[in-house]
């Protein structure tokens, strides 16, 4: 207990001592606090700044990497595109080469064969030349023929002239006009006159009248009988020996036409035929063919039969042209006329008119 | 009386008035046949001379009497009556219609079956003149059943009858395709084709004309004519002495060639083009026209055929025609043909341009004397050829004297060729073409301006400026304004 009382007596002293001892620190506490705060703030600042620097570096690194990643991606894309373009260009170039070859081949082979065309044109020009030559020859031939024809005509004319004037030929005594003694050679006309046959006038031809009289018809004209007298005997027949009658007399006699007498020309049953003819003529004029018998009423024993038209009780029938087109309106069942269902047949609509327009007045 | 009538036909030139008709008419009904014949002959000669007299014949009601007695009388009367009908029918369609109205066609057709060749000839002649005028009359003739008889007449040995029958067939078939088909159906083509070989030239004229009238209507008819194997015989007709035979042969070939390329090919393969070109060279005037048109048609079908025409030496001949001929329509045809040849490819245009025809064409286009047709055709030809022409020496003269619408094409061609050819560029400059091009005034934005621009781009700047107009003035201006360096 003593300690306690000691302690309690020291309490205030201890308290004050405690306060004073602790208060010592107080005097520098502000200063020290401020210093400490300064140091701490400076240190925290450094710390934070270091931290911020660190962060900045980290951000840079991240951004660096990120951007390089993006760039690489872009680059790959560019490379891809460039590669693709390069390939496509290559393909295009190759395709152009193929198309070039193919189109050239196609046009040359199927569409327009240049060499064939050249050949064709050459063939055409050759044909042209051949035709031209042939036509030239033809024209020349024609000319030659025409010249020849002209020359022949001239010749014939001259010959005809010479024939007409053959009397101008020179004789032994008198030289003709074309054979003058002062000339060295006779004129060509002279030679022509010598060659040519003199012209004589033709007698007008008498036209034979066509013989139509009966006697020449009655001569045996069948092919099996003697030939007609116009045929002359053959010329080269050797003359038979001996005095013979004149050949014309002989032939005249041989082929003398038949001249029958009247008794021969008439038919043998002439009388009978004449009677028949007379009977026929009279029969034409007969009114009644029956023979005439006397006692006429004795033979009349047939009953008279009247005709059916007179003996019927009905009148003349309603038949005939007038009734064909008669209209009977009471008998009609309907009051409308026929209607055409099918179109009319135009072929006959022009009946009575001409089928062509010829003859219509314009 | 007979003697009086017989002398009357000799002096038709002393004009007889219409009293003659009434005098002659009762004489036709005279008992003596010689008087009838001579009366008919006199009527025919009068009607032949003048169409008023022919009208008087129709009005005087003589025709029915003639037609009626045609059926019965002897052959001299038939000949004279057919002569009258022919003389009346040849003047105009109305008179021919009057003849048909009297029913003369049936009696004429009956005359065609007569034995005497003179009667047949007169009847065929009358039928031919009637059918010549228009299609209805030809149809009437065909309806009367004349065509098979005409084909029979062609086969007769007399040359005059053949001639007239061929000309009648040609007159019938020229109007329409159906009539031509009727003629073909009667089997006329084979006989006509055989008669081409006949030496008589008037007959050949008519036969060729008939075949060309048949062939002109359609492709089928032309093919049928070709199937009758007329080539190459027709080409010999091109060398005939008679001008009209040549003309009709050219017409026939032209009608065949104009339908399809295959037919033209056939003609080219048979050497027809060369023959026609020679024929053109040997004729003058209107005879040449169908040949020129034929070349144009052949060249128009395709470029191969045009090349065939070129190698057959057609272009020099055509250009000779173009420059020599006085008539405008022949020149127009030649211009058209040249245009057809040159319009296909640059080779063709070059072939045409080489022969120096382009200046001639230009002159024709510009001259005031040419007819409108000629101007139009030459303009088209120039345009077609220029659009394909790359032969620069021929184009250069055009720069100087062409009108603006043609100049446009010329400059266009230059602008196409110059960028690729260095020698041509050099030649262009040295010949003064560049200078001329600079002088051309063109609206900005027009096609001409673009062409000039593209030509200028082919040359360095200084040369273009050197040749531009007024360059010497600008140089002098620069000299004036230059301050010399004073040092």
UniProtKB/TrEMBL annotation, chain A:
<protein>
    <submittedName>
        <fullName>Spermatosis associated 17</fullName>
    </submittedName>
</protein>
<keyword id="KW-0112">Calmodulin-binding</keyword>
<dbReference type="GO" id="GO:0000922">
    <property type="term" value="C:spindle pole"/>
</dbReference>
<dbReference type="GO" id="GO:0005737">
    <property type="term" value="C:cytoplasm"/>
</dbReference>
<keyword id="KW-0175">Coiled coil</keyword>
<keyword id="KW-0963">Cytoplasm</keyword>
<dbReference type="GO" id="GO:0000278">
    <property type="term" value="P:mitotic cell cycle"/>
</dbReference>
<dbReference type="Pfam" id="PF00612">
    <property type="entry name" value="IQ"/>
</dbReference>
<keyword id="KW-0677">Repeat</keyword>
<dbReference type="InterPro" id="IPR051185">
    <property type="entry name" value="ASPM"/>
</dbReference>
<dbReference type="InterPro" id="IPR027417">
    <property type="entry name" value="P-loop_NTPase"/>
</dbReference>
<dbReference type="GO" id="GO:0005516">
    <property type="term" value="F:calmodulin binding"/>
</dbReference>
<dbReference type="InterPro" id="IPR000048">
    <property type="entry name" value="IQ_motif_EF-hand-BS"/>
</dbReference>
<dbReference type="GO" id="GO:0051295">
    <property type="term" value="P:establishment of meiotic spindle localization"/>
</dbReference>
<dbReference type="GO" id="GO:0007051">
    <property type="term" value="P:spindle organization"/>
</dbReference>
<feature type="coiled-coil region">
    <location>
        <begin position="117"/>
        <end position="164"/>
    </location>
</feature>
TrEMBL record, chain B:
<keyword id="KW-0206">Cytoskeleton</keyword>
<protein>
    <recommendedName>
        <fullName>Sperm-associated antigen 6</fullName>
    </recommendedName>
</protein>
<dbReference type="GO" id="GO:0003351">
    <property type="term" value="P:epithelial cilium movement involved in extracellular fluid movement"/>
</dbReference>
<comment type="function">
    <text>Important for structural integrity of the central apparatus in the sperm tail and for flagellar motility.</text>
</comment>
<dbReference type="GO" id="GO:0005576">
    <property type="term" value="C:extracellular region"/>
</dbReference>
<dbReference type="GO" id="GO:0008017">
    <property type="term" value="F:microtubule binding"/>
</dbReference>
<keyword id="KW-0493">Microtubule</keyword>
<dbReference type="GO" id="GO:0046847">
    <property type="term" value="P:filopodium assembly"/>
</dbReference>
<dbReference type="InterPro" id="IPR011989">
    <property type="entry name" value="ARM-like"/>
</dbReference>
<keyword id="KW-0963">Cytoplasm</keyword>
<dbReference type="GO" id="GO:0005874">
    <property type="term" value="C:microtubule"/>
</dbReference>
<keyword id="KW-0966">Cell projection</keyword>
<keyword id="KW-0677">Repeat</keyword>
<dbReference type="GO" id="GO:0097228">
    <property type="term" value="C:sperm principal piece"/>
</dbReference>
<dbReference type="GO" id="GO:0001669">
    <property type="term" value="C:acrosomal vesicle"/>
</dbReference>
<keyword id="KW-0970">Cilium biogenesis/degradation</keyword>
<dbReference type="GO" id="GO:0007288">
    <property type="term" value="P:sperm axoneme assembly"/>
</dbReference>
<comment type="subunit">
    <text>Interacts with SPAG16 and SPAG17.</text>
</comment>
<dbReference type="InterPro" id="IPR000225">
    <property type="entry name" value="Armadillo"/>
</dbReference>
<dbReference type="InterPro" id="IPR016024">
    <property type="entry name" value="ARM-type_fold"/>
</dbReference>
<dbReference type="GO" id="GO:1990138">
    <property type="term" value="P:neuron projection extension"/>
</dbReference>
<dbReference type="Pfam" id="PF00514">
    <property type="entry name" value="Arm"/>
</dbReference>
